[in-house]
Amino acid sequence: MSGEFFDTHFTVAEANALIPFLRESFERIHHKQDELVKQYPEIKEFLEKKSSDFGFANSFDYFRKGNEISKLIDRISRTGVFLKDLQRGLVDFPHVSEGKEIFLCWELGEKEVMFWHEIEAGYTGRQPLYSGRKE
Known about the structure:
Distance between the termini: 15 Å
Number of helices: 3
Radius of gyration: 17 Å
Strand content: 15-25%
Structural class: alpha+beta
Number of domains: 1
């Protein structure tokens, strides 16, 4: 197909094969975030608002744990998926269906990829994968 926007495309099977890795990565990220919140309660607001004010946490341990989280996020990104929401564990997989680029959509807690959406539609435009759309 010419005019493809994304370099990497996933089949449904390829996307589903990544789910164990994604699930484990998100669980590890969330665990590390929970550790940070316990040790630095003020970070909860930072994580929720995605603020860039790091003034409250200047300890080595904070930066070490933050770096571990960054490395996990980087590992996810290197697979070619699009990380849409870290807290929800929401990712999009570029996919070609019927000659058109779309996103397969998966969220932590879902057993497998069961939804897709138009690139412009986002999460609110999610549709069941097998409702007339060809794989």
